[in-house]
Amino acid sequence: MSSSQLTYTRFAVVGGTGALGALITKELVAHGAEVVVLSRSASDVPVGATVKVVDYADPSSLAEALAGAEVVISTLYAAGFAVQPAVVDAAKAAGAKLFVPS
């Protein structure tokens, strides 16, 4: 699949440095997508992706990090589920067209 076959080309992966998030990020990058990874730290970001360190408790931090993303994919799990509603609100505020929940 080439980027010309992707319906969307700008993605944000929340939790993109975790096991599942990293796999999704790598595949999206391999298909030519522009990927921003939201994380609490800048470590272990898959090659080809951009990292944005966010404070999940700060709505403006989330909205700024999600600006320009067409699709937001959440790979949060366990304790991370508690912040997913804030991510949904920020994705909507940022104008994302699609939200994929954990």
Short note summarizing the structure:
The protein is of the alpha/beta class. It contains three helices and five strands. A five-stranded parallel beta sheet has the order 3-2-1-4-5, with helices on both faces.
Number of self-contained structural domains: 1
| Overall number of strands | 5
Helical content, roughly? Answer: 25-40%
Biggest β-sheet: strands ordered side by side in the sheet: 3-2-1-4-5
Q: Provide the β-strand percentage band.
A: 15-25%
**CATH third-tier fold name:** Rossmann fold
This entry's quaternary arrangement is single chain
The major pleated sheet works out as: 5 strands, parallel
Q: Name the helix and strand elements from N-terminus to C-terminus, one letter apiece.
A: EHEEHEHE
Structural class: alpha/beta
CATH architecture: 3-Layer(aba) Sandwich
Low-confidence stretches: none
Mean pLDDT: 91
Give the distance, in angstroms, between the N- and C-terminal Cα atoms.
24 Å
In CATH, what is the homologous superfamily? NAD(P)-binding Rossmann-like Domain
Task: Provide the gyration radius in Å.
Answer: 12 Å
What this model shows, in words?
The protein has 102 residues and is α/β, with parallel strands linked by helices. It has a single domain (3-100), classed as Rossmann fold (3-Layer(aba) Sandwich). Helices cover 30% and strands 22% of the residues. It is built from three helices and five strands, in the order E-H-E-E-H-E-H-E. A five-stranded parallel sheet has the order 3-2-1-4-5, with helices on both faces. Helix 1 links the parallel strand 1 and strand 2. Helix 2 (59-66) packs across helix 3. The protein is globular and about 30 Å long. The model has no long low-confidence stretch (mean pLDDT 91).
